[in-house]
Amino acid sequence: MSSDKESHSHDDIGCLEAIEAFYAYLDGELSDPQAIEDFEHHMSHCRSCFSRSEVEKLLNERMRESGTSKAPDDLRSRVRRLMDEF
Which helix (DSSP H) or strand (DSSP E) does residue 21 occupy? Predict the structure, then answer.
């Protein structure tokens, strides 16, 4: 049997709230210690959210890696022209 303290310290936030908090957590923008603890607790026992978060982490890494390469000059020129026309 768990104590009241244990049950209150890890109220399950649910999948929707975990998904909504995911990017803030990854970006270090989730600052409330209880919110961080609740998020981490949910991820530790929800396979669906954990799997989804792993895919998102990999996607973020790939996007960061690709962000360091420079677009070809012809593409940059076309984008500039389109922006000027807009």
Answer: helix 15-26
Structure tokens at 83: 């922006």
Residue 14 falls in which region: left (phi positive, over 0), alpha (psi -120 to 50) or beta: left
Q: Can you tell me the distance from the alpha carbon of 22 to that of 29, in angstroms, rounded to the nearest whole number?
A: 10
pLDDT tens figures, 9-59? 556 788 989 988 888 888 889 889 998 999 999 999 999 999 988 998 898
Residue 14: what are its φ and ψ, rounded to 5°?
85, 160
Residue ranges per domain, the chain? 4-85
Task: Give the pLDDT confidence score for residue 20 in this predicted structure.
Answer: 86
- Which residue has tokens 């991820």? 43
Task: Using alpha carbons, list the distances in angstroms from residue 26 to 30, 40, 75.
Answer: 8, 11, 31
Q: Which residues contact 41 (CB under 8 A, 6 or more apart)?
A: 10, 12, 13
Residue 40 tokens read as 């981490």
